[in-house]
Amino acid sequence: MPLIIDGEQIKNAPTLDSFVKSFPQFKDSSDQLLKQNVQEVNPHGLLYVGQREVAGTYPGDDVISILGSEDATTCHLMVLRHTGSGAAALAHFDGSSIAEGLETMISIVADLTEDMSSGRLEAHLVGGFLDVSKNSHEVSDKVLEALCKSPYELNLVTACITHYNTVYHNSIPFPVIYGVAFDVRNGQLYRATFVDKGPDMAIRSARLYTGGKENLKIYDPQTHKLKIGPFHYGRLPNVDIFLSLPGSQIRQFLSTSPEQEPESFVESVRATLIQLRDFPRPLQTVFKGGKSRIYSKDKSTGKWIMQPS
């Protein structure tokens, strides 16, 4: 099926540069998003989606009403929503397995939609910037290709990506938007930051450093449970050396965009490296018995509470 932009069918995947030239209307819609103030989102009703993760729900979910993600520099955040049912999914793509991740998003939305013909699928893209190494270009190209090759008709509504998400400070490019939230009940996308990203972030990040490419689905909207793993992550050579490095060198060696990373980057990387060092066999030490780590959200506090295995 072709990608749809303002009623026009896009059968062949454009490169990012040709996309920007062919569809300048996305600059105007991007500017509206860029002008927003960043909202701090509290944990109540929030489902935070990490890098290489996918999750979704529907307006009738009485536990989750907000999908969100941040810390995207060269990464891209995608929201997919069905206009009839209001069911929506969010993914945090870093360039790995994007087509498969999009399939998972569509599957989540389709499973929560009684009649797919009662509305259309709308896609929103945010992320990337004009980085010197063009890592963002590569992710943008892969996302556009996945959208064009999807078996479903997808309508691209927002594309605040790379060219449109760049600001310069002392001639150095930076992304304007690092994070977004999506209100499933009213369909609003907005700039956001998050005071609580949920449980097990070091565990969830560990697989990114040792070759885990799959975009994992982390939430069941029927049971309202957050599910982490089970998954394997390998050993990271020289992990102790990395842990001994100052923050500036951790940024240099472990980021595609060291100058643009948020302040929390070094702290989160150190936590992940400690996870890799101290729990090198996760299927035995973290996911005991090969079982997932299951969480339920406490509605009074918004915190995720681990369930007994």
UniProtKB/TrEMBL annotation:
A GO MF label: protein-N-terminal asparagine amidohydrolase activity
One cellular-component annotation, GO: nucleus
InterPro entries found in the cross-reference section: NTAN1
Pfam families per the UniProt record, alphabetical: N_Asn_amidohyd
GO biological process, one term: ubiquitin-dependent protein catabolic process
The name this protein goes by in its record: Protein n-terminal asparagine amidohydrolase-like
Organism field: Plakobranchus ocellatus
